[in-house]
C-alpha cells in the first residue's frame, strides 16, 4: 500500500505524551485518500506516538460497498526499510510485486512483504470481487540489522486460532496465549485479531515488557474501561499483564504490541530510513526506474510518481516524535 501523505498524522492533545508505564491515550485517526477509489483511516503514525513496538503505520479501510465499483486500485509503487502486513475481514485483494509474486488474499489470510533495501508492488481488487472491502494494512519498521537485506514475500493461508471463553483470537504475528504465528518478523512483535460476541467479556494476557495498542474494526468495545469504536487507536503504554475487554455487541478488534522500538526513523512517502540522504537516494532511484526496485511483474500500468521532496530537511525522530540529531 502507498502512503499519499508526505507529512505525519495530526497533532493530538498534550495528554498523549508517551510514558514508559501503563496509560490510556486515545489517538484519533484521520481520513486519507489512497489510490483512486479507496479512503483509509490513518491511525499511526501521529506526532506524539509514532510507533507501537516496531509497528510504524496503521491504515484501516472499510467496510466499503464496492459492488459495481473497482474497489482497491493502487498501482506500482516502491518501499524501503519496512514490512507490509495485510489483513482482510471482507473482500479480496490481488498482490503483485517485483519478485514475481502474484497472490490473492482473502479474509483470514495474511500477506507479509519484506522490502529490505527495496521492492515494488501493486494491489488491486480483482475484476470479479466481493461486494464489501474491509481490512487493515500495517507497516513494521525493520531494525538496522535487517533493513538493507533482500526483499521477500510470504502468504499465510492458515493462522493459529484459539478460543478462551467469549473471545476468539487469530494470531497474525508473534505469540498469544501459547499460539504462535509462522510469519517472520525481525523484532519482538504481536499482532492478534480478537472477536467477541454481544455482551462478551475477556481478560487478554499481555507481555509486560511490550507496549500495546488496540483498534476496533467493527462494533463497540470497552477496553481497560475506555469505550472504543472504529476510528481511533487506544495506546496502552507498557507494563500491563492483562487487558480487560467488554463488548456491547458483536465486535472485532486488533491488538498490536511489541518491544519498544528505539531506533530513530525518517518516514516519508513509502520509505522508512534513518536520514534525509537515504530518502533522497531512494526517491531518485525510483524516479529513474533503476534496478533497485525492479518492475512489478504482471502490471503494465505506469509506476506511481514520488511526491516532490519538501523544501526543508527531513529529520530523524524517535518513537515519541522527538527530533534526534
UniProtKB/TrEMBL annotation:
InterPro entries given in the database record: Pirin (IPR012093), Pirin_C_dom (IPR008778), Pirin_N_dom (IPR003829), RmlC-like_jellyroll (IPR014710), RmlC_Cupin_sf (IPR011051)
UniProt domain Pirin C-terminal: residue ranges: 193-289
Ranges of residues in domain Pirin N-terminal: 40-140
A matching Pfam family: Pirin_C
Chain positions covered by the region annotation Disordered: 296-325
SUPFAM superfamilies assigned: RmlC-like cupins
Biased composition (Basic residues): 314-325
Family label: Belongs to the pirin family.
PANTHER family for this protein: PIRIN, PIRIN-RELATED
Protein name (record): Pirin family protein
Native species: Plantactinospora sonchi
Amino acid at each position: 500500500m502507498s502512503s499519499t501523505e508526505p507529512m505525519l498524522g495530526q497533532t493530538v492533545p498534550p495528554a498523549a505524551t508517551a510514558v514508559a508505564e501503563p496509560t490510556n491515550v486515545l489517538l484519533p485517526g484521520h481520513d486519507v485518500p489512497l489510490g483512486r477509489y479507496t479512503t483509509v483511516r490513518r491511525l499511526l503514525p501521529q506526532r506524539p506516538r509514532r510507533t507501537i513496538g516496531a509497528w510504524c503505520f496503521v491504515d484501516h479501510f472499510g467496510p466499503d460497498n464496492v459492488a459495481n465499483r473497482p474497489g482497491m486500485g493502487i498501482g506500482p509503487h516502491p518501499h524501503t526499510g519496512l514490512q507490509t502486513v495485510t489483513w482482510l475481514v471482507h473482500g479480496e485483494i490481488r498482490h503483485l510485486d517485483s519478485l514475481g509474486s502474484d497472490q490473492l488474499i482473502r479474509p483470514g489470510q495474511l500477506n507479509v512483504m519484506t522490502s529490505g533495501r527495496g521492492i515494488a508492488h501493486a494491489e488491486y481488487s480483482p475484476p470479479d470481487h466481493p461486494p464489501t472491502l474491509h481490512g487493515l494494512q500495517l507497516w513494521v519498521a525493520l531494525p538496522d540489522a535487517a533493513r538493507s537485506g533482500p526483499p521477500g514475500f510470504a502468504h499465510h493461508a492458515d493462522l493459529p486460532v484459539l478460543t478462551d471463553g467469549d473471545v476468539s483470537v487469530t494470531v497474525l504475528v508473534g505469540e498469544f496465549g501459547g499460539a504462535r504465528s509462522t510469519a517472520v518478523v525481525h523484532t519482538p512483535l504481536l499482532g492478534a485479531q480478537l472477536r467477541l460476541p454481544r455482551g462478551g467479556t475477556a481478560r487478554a494476557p499481555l507481555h509486560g515488557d511490550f507496549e500495546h495498542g488496540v483498534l476496533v474494526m467493527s462494533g463497540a468495545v470497552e477496553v481497560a474501561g475506555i469505550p472504543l469504536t472504529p476510528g481511533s487507536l487506544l495506546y496502552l503504554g507498557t507494563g500491563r499483564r492483562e487487558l480487560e475487554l467488554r463488548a456491547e455487541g458483536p465486535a472485532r478488534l486488533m491488538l498490536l504490541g511489541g518491544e519498544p522500538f528505539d531506533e530513530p526513523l525518517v518516514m516519508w512517502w513509502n520509505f522508512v530510513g534513518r536520514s534525509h540522504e537515504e530518502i533522497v537516494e531512494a526517491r531518485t532511484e525510483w524516479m529513474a526506474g533503476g534496478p533497485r526496485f525492479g518492475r512489478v511483474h504482471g502490471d503494465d500500468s505506469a509506476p506511481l510518481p514520488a511526491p516532490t521532496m519538501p523544501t526543508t530537511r527531513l529529520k530523524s525522530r524517535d518513537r515519541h516524535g522527538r527530533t534526534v540529531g
